[in-house]
Please model this.
Amino acid sequence: MGTSSKTIAAIAAISTIWPNAALPQGSAGAIGTGTNVAGTTASTGTNTVTATTAATPAQGGLTFDIGIGSKLSVDDNFQLKQTSPGTSTVWDNRLDFNLGSVTGVQDFSLTGSGVFRYADIPGRSISGFEDPTVRLRYRLDGVNSQLTLTGRYRHVDREFLDPFQIEQEETNFNGLYAGGGTVTFKNAALGYVIGINDPLTFTLNLSHDEKDYDATAVASNPRLFDTESDSIDANVAMKLSPVTSLRFSAGLTDYSANDLVQTQRQTTDFAVGVVRDINPVLVLDAQVGYTEVETDTIFGTTRRDGATGAVTLTQTLPNGSIFGSLDSTLNQNGSRTTLRFGRDLQLPLGNLRASVGGTKTPGGDTYVVATVAYDRQLKTSDISVSLNRSVSTNNVNEDVLDTRLTVGYGYEIDANSRFDLALNWGRSESAGIGAAPTIERTTLRASYSRDLTQDWAMTGGVQLRYRNDSTPGVGDAQSNSVFLSLDRTFNFRP
Model:
């Protein structure tokens, strides 16, 4: 979990001024790895914050959207038990809203949702308001600065969490685990950049992340416990010439866990890097750094420190780009080294982004890592494929190899109806250090959607779920379900 908290902080801080340095999920220590396909040019090194987040949106004024939906589903093994205890019936009535305001200098969005749920599940029944979720996003653009603020709150029953539809930082650590209970997520982040258009750019990022489990969840799995982390990162980017930029960064993360050993961990990072345009189509991005990790438990204090680094070479091609990268990171388990090659290909009817490489873990083992993102749009159909295979460290200090595959296919039958087929597969297994269980989850969903009127849409279908879990007492399980939903959205433009 220390790895995850550092990853989130590093991504938020460094990607602002050095997009190629954003850490992949689960890589702590080095503030940059250079694993992105797209390159960063030195000629825009101090202005890259405007490339993705600071682009001034068109003035849109105030918007207010309300969505309502009712879904009835019947599942023969909703709780995914080895032996089904009986059929479950769930009736969810969803309400969500989105309040937004966009002007020439600011972008505000407040979204919220909740479910009025009535469920008859073997062993218990549910009646009332469930899954309250609130998200806030605000951005203010100055002439030469930018302020961003984000926040999120969610309280949800874990049995209703889809491991393939929640945020990646959640799936890495609890998305595939079985068991019930509730979990509450609380996140907040503040970022400020000044000197966006100057040779010298300063960036400051603060973040807070908190996960709280109730007694039922904690009792169901010893790997689930309350965690909290706070991070601060400061960065300076300096443009030396039209083709060369320097960057300096420092970060501090405090992590605490209410686990059996009462973990308290502090991670400190320092790094210096350079971006150099070797020629108009070839960019070198390199950095060296130092990371120190200090962990306190009821058994005493342990320290781990060492050098980190990353180097990426990116070449722009007529139809995309190609890159190679080598990075070394450090966390509480030790040093992790990754070599990766990637390709970004723009196709006539779609896009392909892919990378493949190997990661050497602190335990000395090497694992294949890869990413694939492919989408293709045809006249009446579309297809998408997403693959992510990476090594991370979970919140009980176990190195984990996590693989996720998603395949989607959609076919437009006519102007008012379509057919969709989706396959989600995930596998989590030990990557050397620790004894993480091997867990496989598969979800296959087929659905038919039709617009009943201009405002109302109906969707019906079937869903099959499978789980294979080596955790003692959990084992294998499968379920079959059918569902029918009715949805509508109301749009207001004052």
